[in-house]
Amino acid sequence: MLVVMLYCYTKAVLSEPGWKVFCWLCLFGVAASAAFSVKVTVFILFIAVFVCLLLQKKSWKKIIAGVVIVAISFGVGHGLCNYVKSSVIPLEESYCDAYEFPLTHWIMMALGYGGYQQEDVDFTISFNSYEKKKEANIKEIKKRLKARSFHESFKFFGYDKQVRTWGDATLASCVYLAEGPQEPDNILKQFVTLKGSKYWIALLYMTLYYGLILVGMFLSARFAVKRKSDAKAVNMPIFASSITMLGIALFQTIWECNSRYLVVFIPIMILLAADGFFAWRDYLREERIK
User: Fold this and answer.
1) Pick the residue with more confidence: 176 or 181?
2) Which of 74, 165, 190, 290 has the fewest beta carbons closer than 10 A?
3) What's the confidence (pLDDT) of residue 228?
4) Which of 55, 54, 39, 51 is nearest to 4 (CA)?
5) Measured at the alpha carbon of residue 237, what is the angle toward residues 234 and 241, in degrees to the nearest 5?
6) pTM for the whole structure
């Protein structure tokens, strides 16, 4: 759905002014609502597009119209998705109150190891109501914030969490594959599980590929700073993608960080990497001409 969202937005900004632009923005809002129901972090692209809509060099009337259309289409789509979910999987309020985790749980977990901790899950689930879970989480959040000095907090958020977010070339896939059910005679498990005899081959390939993506993303950001026409329509999808990746980086800084959260953003990462290498190529050509 992330690709569908980006495609709809790209078509909207590249279309001639008129009803087609609003149709594509409407489809973007609907796609965003469906994606939000499946994976909440996709909403970061939705926010990035909102920012880009506000930055476009157009009249305020057209900007406001675009924002309103996206907001309404998302709201309608989100309401429809919630209706379908509640119809297919009806849940009683008492059940939700007993088992639903408040958002504070993930913030609390973000302040511990930084990533997933089964002990934190056991702690939150030990309380029998939503409000009690929330109160206990807030109390633990305050405790964990006080436990670190400013220097320790700076290192934790600025280094430790970033390494846990961006430092795994497998995006945690090999860890989860090792935990799942496996066919004993399947040769693939020797390549894609941590204890597989051929795991080093897959790890080498993924590390090189992932490294190229990160280098390309860095180049894209580097040359984007030099561009004076980022607000032009042709560059807005790349700009939205850059804001999205900045958003996911900030999100994982304050939230439970896990490299697997990047999986859904792989298409955007590849797009930015390609943009970076093409921008570098153009730069080298210009330097040769000079």
Assistant:
1) 176
2) 290
3) 54
4) 39
5) 145
6) 0.81
Rounded to whole angstroms, the Cα distance separating 236 from 242 reads 10
The burial class, CB within 10 Å (0-12 / 13-18 / 19+), for 233 is middle
Domain of 125, in residue numbers:
100-147
Each residue's pLDDT tens digit, 75-94: 888 888 888 877 777 777 77
Please count the other Cβ atoms lying within 10 Å of the Cβ belonging to residue 40. 10
My answer on whether 152 and 217 are in the same domain is yes
| Structure tokens given for 50 | 């909102």
**Rounded Cα–Cα distance for residues 244 and 5 (Å):** 12
Number of domains in the chain: 3
The two most distant CA atoms of the chain are separated, in Å, by 71
Rounded distance, CA 23 to CA 40, Å? 24
- Segment 132-148, tens digit of pLDDT: 889 999 998 988 888 88
Q: Of how many residues is the chain composed? A: 290
Percent of the chain surpassing pLDDT 90: 11
Q: Number of helices and strands (H, E) in the chain?
A: 15, 0
CB-CB contact of 45 with 239 (8 Å): no
- What tokens appear for 265 in the block? 């953003």
Highest mean pLDDT among 2-6, 47-51, 131-135, 227-231: 131-135
CB atoms within 10 A of CB 190: 14
Angle at alpha carbon of residue 93, lines to 89 and 97, rounded to 5°? 110
One domain for residues 174 and 48: no
Cα angle 164, 48, 138; round to 5: 50
